[in-house]
Amino acid sequence: MNINRTIDHTVLKPTTTLEDVKKLCMECVEYDFAAACVPPLYVKIAQQFLGNTNTKIATVIGFPFGYSAIEAKVAELILAIVDGADELDVVINISAIKNNDWEYLEKEIANIMYIVREKKKVIKVIIESGILLEEEIVKCCQLYSKYGVDFVKTSTGYAERGATIEAVKLMRANLPANIQIKASGGIRTFAFAKELIEAGATRIGASASVNIVKESKEGTAQ
């Protein structure tokens, strides 16, 4: 399994430095990862580090809690695209889910999708599955299917629970085949990444990406 091309190599800690981003991008070039996922501040510089490689530039919007205003997310989205982002990982408004305010969530995604489609970018909506009820996950799948997002993503990595096999299976069962799943949050081994892929994920978000690839090649996954 060439797992490297399923991985978004990620650095999103609040203390992320320029050196962290440079190291991440150099590892993306060395291991041919699918994307380098960096804070919005570093999108422009990531472009310089990556140059003309296969690795896409991803960044986050409304990260990590998702409850910023729609207008704020739209502004973030536009700036990220102007700076050169290819893929946008957007945290939806988790508070709205807990308020059962699906009308708000529909308005949010409608505004976001208009820009994403106009600019021909890839969008991954982060639903934070680890803190949602099963019925909430299903409703999210139904809503974001309606708007034709590219990926539904499990987690930010900042909630108390990240990706799980159960959540990925539930999402796969409730999404059309053309919408992919990105699993992220707490993925540190090849064994777990492989399980998530077998459950239906086609993209993995991880900071332990190099370790995952090394384990896949050495056959030493625990």
Can you walk through the features of this model?
The protein has 9 helices and 8 strands. It starts with 6 loop residues before the first strand and ends with a helix. It has 222 residues and is of the alpha/beta class. It has helices at 18-31, 43-50, 70-83, 94-98, 102-118, 134-146, 165-173, 190-199, 209-218, and strands at 7-10, 35-38, 56-61, 87-91, 122-126, 151-153, 180-184, 203-206. Strand 5 (122-126), helix 6 (134-146) and strand 6 form a beta-alpha-beta unit. The model has no long low-confidence stretch (mean pLDDT 97). It has a single domain (3-217), classed as TIM Barrel (Alpha-Beta Barrel). Strands 1-2-3-4-5-6-7-8 form an 8-stranded parallel barrel, surrounded by 6 helices. It is found in: Cytoplasm. It catalyses: 2-deoxy-D-ribose 5-phosphate = D-glyceraldehyde 3-phosphate + acetaldehyde. Pfam families: DeoC (PF01791). Keywords: Cytoplasm, Lyase, Schiff base. Catalyzes a reversible aldol reaction between acetaldehyde and D-glyceraldehyde 3-phosphate to generate 2-deoxy-D-ribose 5-phosphate.
Unreliable spans are none
Encode the helix/strand succession as letters: EHEHEHEHHEHEHEHEH
Structural domain count: 1
- Alpha carbon gap, first and last residue: 16 Å
Q: Work out the helicity level.
A: 40-55%
- The largest sheet has its strands arranged as 1-2-3-4-5-6-7-8
User: CATH top level?
Assistant: Alpha Beta
Oligomer description: single chain
Gyration radius over CA: 16 Å
Shape: globular
Strand coverage percent: 15-25%
Tell me which CATH architecture applies here.
Answer: Alpha-Beta Barrel
CATH superfamily membership: Aldolase class I
Q: What is the number of helices?
A: 9
Output mean pLDDT: 97
Largest sheet: number of strands, sense, barrel closure: 8 strands, parallel, barrel
Number of strands: 8
- The CATH topology corresponds to TIM Barrel
SS-based class: alpha/beta
InterPro entries: Aldolase_TIM, DeoC, DeoC/FbaB/LacD_aldolase, DeoC_typeI
Function: Catalyzes a reversible aldol reaction between acetaldehyde and D-glyceraldehyde 3-phosphate to generate 2-deoxy-D-ribose 5-phosphate.
GO cellular component, one term: cytoplasm
Keywords: Cytoplasm, Lyase, Schiff base
